[in-house]
Write a structure and sequence with these properties.
By secondary structure, this protein is mostly helical. The protein contains six helices and no strands.
């Protein structure tokens, strides 16, 4: 008469496997299990579960690095936008600013520029206190997030 064992509640059904590993790894598992006072099977099972689930420290670290890379790509796009905007501004400024001759004209220009610069600082402070940003207005027009991500991947592939 044969009897079948029913698994007790809370215990998983186990299957015995016989993988071959290098002797150094087998000794490391045995030593680790002895130090932690657990079975070698539980050490191997936990390590295999972690490997298959992709939750190892290296996997999590690589995911985090990938997120940081995506953020850096966005920052790089914003910096490129800023530098090109500034270059365009300087080019237009020099094209439309006349040369000032004479000391009286220069003194008047200096006082007027100081007042205009103070107005600029006030306008900048007001703009920075809001959530409205020039880059957020311009970037969606230039490219959507999928295009930016594709460009980032293409740039990462290049040596």
């Amino acid at each position: 008469m044969t009897t079948e064992r029913k698994p007790t509640p809370g215990k998983l059904k186990r299957k015995k496997i016989h993988p071959y590993v290098p002797a150094e790894q087998a000794m490391a598992v045995k030593t680790y299990a002895a130090l932690k006072r657990v079975s070698e099977s539980s050490v191997v099972s936990a390590a295999l579960a972690q490997y298959l689930a992709g939750t190892s420290d290296a996997t999590l670290l690589l995911k985090r690095l990938n997120r940081l890379q995506n953020k850096l790509t966005a920052i790089e796009a914003l910096m490129n936008l800023l530098s090109e905007s500034f270059a365009l501004y300087v080019e237009i400024y020099f094209a439309h600013t006349p040369t000032i001759h004479g000391e009286d004209a220069k003194a008047t220009a200096r006082s007027a520029s100081a007042a205009r610069f103070a107005d600029f600082i006030d306008a900048l402070a007001q703009r920075m206190s809001t959530t409205n940003r020039f880059a957020s207005e311009v970037l969606p027009v230039l490219a959507d997030q999928d295009e930016l991500a594709a460009a980032a991947r293409a740039a990462a592939v290049k040596p």
